[in-house]
Amino acid sequence: MTLSQAEFNFVSQLVRREASIVLAPGKEYLVEARLIPVARAVGAANVNEFLADLQRRPDPARQRKIIDALTTNETSWFRDREPFTALTEVVLPELVKSRGATRKLRVWSAASSSGQEAYSLAITMQENLPPGWNYEIMGTDISTEMVKRAETAEYSQVEVNRGLPAAQLVQYFERAGAHWRITQALRRNVSFRLMNLTAPLPAMQPFDVIFLRNVLIYFDVATKRTVLQNVAKLLRPDGWLFLGAAETTIGIDDNYERVAAGRTSAYRVRSGASVGAARRG
Question: Taking every annotated instance into account, which residue ranges of this chain make up the domain CheR-type methyltransferase (predicted)?
Answer without folding.
Answer: 1-272
